[in-house]
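W.,

You were right to be curious about this one. When I first looked at the sequence I had no strong expectations either way, so I just let the prediction run and decided to look at it fresh. Below is the sequence, 199 residues in total, followed by the output.
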Amino acid sequence: MSFRSEPFLWIHLAGLAVLPLFLELTWLGLAIAESLVPVWLELILLAIVGIVPIAWMQWQKPFDIFSLLFVALQPQQLTSQQRQILRLFKTRKHRVLTLFAVLAMGWALWKLAVFAPLAAPAAARLTQSRGLGLGLAIVGFLGSNLFLQVPISVLGVLLTSNGQFEVTEPLTPEEVSQSVTVLGFRVGNILPTVASNNL
């Protein structure tokens, strides 16, 4: 079976659909109340809190895509093909894509700040506290980065040639535990029907 048929790849690629919602939340947060400090200082704070943690994770220990919500497959349950996919998240191409996403989100943050006044009518319905606004913006921008970085990485895997994939050495179960970030509990099965019939 082609590695491109792996359902977890498509599940996480679909995360791009959530990106606009988090960007809108960031935009709304930036429009709440007047800034008490220079806008550029707020943007630096947002960039540090929103971009750096996700980019660092993807650069050092990429997100484990064999997970849903708060559960992830145990390394011993991963097939050889799945561990090959995880190996691709450790390549130079993956890091280039991570850097591209960082630049894209930096540009997006600047544009959201420039056009923040356009969101003022919607923001006027909320408590006019700059602290609340920054809190919403931080949550929104952190989510935006997560739901861009992970799908971009998945897209990089999907664009890998069949020949390159075939010569990719799978991570060992021990290397999986050391090489990827798990945001949740390890379990034996997540998609039992797919796992038993297709993998």
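Here's what jumped out at me. The CA atoms of residues 58 and 98 lie 7 Å apart. And, maybe more interesting for your project: The chain has eleven helices and three strands.

Coffee later to discuss?

I.
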